[in-house]
Amino acid sequence: MGRWEPDARGRLTKAALELYSERGYEQTTVAEIARRAGLTERTFFRHYADKREVLFVGASSMEELFVQAVAGAPESAAPIDAIAAGLEAVSKVFAGRHEHSRQRQAVIAANAELQERELIKLASISAALADTLRRRGVAEPAASLTAEVGVAVFKVGFERWITASEERELSQLMRESLDELKAVTASS
Amino acid sequence: MGRWEPDARGRLTKAALELYSERGYEQTTVAEIARRAGLTERTFFRHYADKREVLFVGASSMEELFVQAVAGAPESAAPIDAIAAGLEAVSKVFAGRHEHSRQRQAVIAANAELQERELIKLASISAALADTLRRRGVAEPAASLTAEVGVAVFKVGFERWITASEERELSQLMRESLDELKAVTASS
DNA sequence: CTACGTGATGACAGCGACTGACATCGAATG
DNA sequence: CATTCGATGTCAGTCGCTGTCATCACGTAG
Predict the structure, then answer these.
(1) Which CATH code, of 3.30.56.10, 3.30.413.10, 1.10.10.60, 2.40.10.220, is assigned to B8-53?
(2) Binary contact (A185, B149; C-beta < 8 A)
(3) B52-71 residues near strand C (Cβ < 7 Å)
């Protein structure tokens, strides 16, 4: 047996999510999280840059996945179709995580600081997507606009998935949202 | 003469903007801002909810203006055209404020916390726009999507205005961005 | 087998953002 | 003139977060 119990990071993550759910984000101190995990406050900050990051561990891998899917779309695909491929790929990650996602969004929705953090993660995705589209030869401002549209569709589709009374396929909601967006922006 | 110098809030605002520009946001303490304004730290927090809000005083009035313009668009106007009217109205506010806007964006661009705050202000605008569109009879998810598109066009248009080598009309950049977005989302 | 380096953690002090509670005092009000 | 009120000051305290140094099981070289 090692000097310490294994998986300190995992214990911190679990403790944080539990406490945020039980009594809310603001009412939880980092010292409490660390204590529940059998560690010290200082150690928490060695694993997470700040109190909010615990809720966003998956963000970077999701960004990567999104970007890879867009980059891997057929060269012939229009920018918006490459983005659609990215949405499709990202949707699959959430399969079987509906309840977990719902709880997490509830925590975030209850606190402005957390919403800010979520928004900047989405903005980071948008910037990465714009970059990817530019590499595909898309000029500005088309690249940035298409990327922003992709994130907007993700937000709306995800929101509908979370709040839907009966569970539906996330990827289908994404496709519907994208179609709706196309309809709404169609010139008359 | 009153017990105190007048316009405490104005002095705080000025001091904060100066210090954020001179040495950066993070390197400035609230105590320093207050001292330069001839006040105490506690008084700063009576005027501003936090250290970031100083940079976002105009946000709520801009949201109001945007919403009013959308609400006031002809009933016959399509949602996207109502949003276009809002973008037109908002653009006018920035007339003659190019240099000021540029400086402000430079401060924000240098700090992630400030970007987070800006993003949540834009998200608030998006939510208000969606609400306004719903009142105009637009169903979901069209209302949310159109609102998100409006904010996306604003972001891209504004960015182009700020970084343009030669100064151009903001409202024209907004129109161009909207047209580009329409082109990019047009089904083939 | 021993010495040494390494990596994860603890312990502790300190800064700065932010808050609550109470005191102060000029000005408006009657 | 007495009272109330509003804006500010004062002070103590919490909490997020950081820098620094100590500790000690573990692996590894000799």
Answers:
(1) 1.10.10.60
(2) yes
(3) 52
Report which of residues 100-139 in chain B place their beta carbon less than 7 angstroms from any atom of strand C. Answer: none
Which nucleotide shows the minimum CA-to-C1' distance to residue A43?
C9
Residue-wise pLDDT for A74-104, tens only, equals 999 999 999 999 999 999 999 999 999 999 9
Inter-residue contact B128 to B67 (CB < 8 Å) = yes
Interface probe for A, chosen from B174, B184, B188 (most Cβ of A below 10 Å), is B184
Say how many C-beta atoms besides its own lie within 10 A of residue B117's C-beta. Answer: 23
**What one-character DSSP code corresponds to residue A54?**
G
| Assigned CATH topology for domain B58-185 | Tetracycline Repressor; domain 2 (1.10.357)
Please give the CATH number for the structural domain made up of A8-54: 1.10.10.60
Quick one: which residue's CA is nearest to C10's C1'? A40
Q: What is the pLDDT of residues A24-34, one digit of tens each?
A: 999 999 999 99
Q: Is A46 (CB) below 7 Å from strand C?
A: yes
Please check whether the two domains, A8-54 and A58-185, share a CATH topology: no
Q: Lowest-confidence range among A114-123, A164-173, B149-158? A: A164-173
> Sign of torsion, CA A54 B106 B157 A79?
negative
Q: Is the pLDDT of residue A149 over 80?
A: yes
Per-residue pLDDT tens digits for A66-79: 999 999 999 999 99
Q: What's the alpha-carbon Rg for chain A, to the nearest Å?
A: 19
Q: Where exactly are the structural domains of chain B?
A: 8-53, 58-185
CA→C1' distance for B162 and C21 (Å): 46
Q: Find chain B residues with C-beta within 8 A of A160's C-beta.
A: 141
Other C-beta atoms lying within 10 Å of the C-beta of residue A83: 28
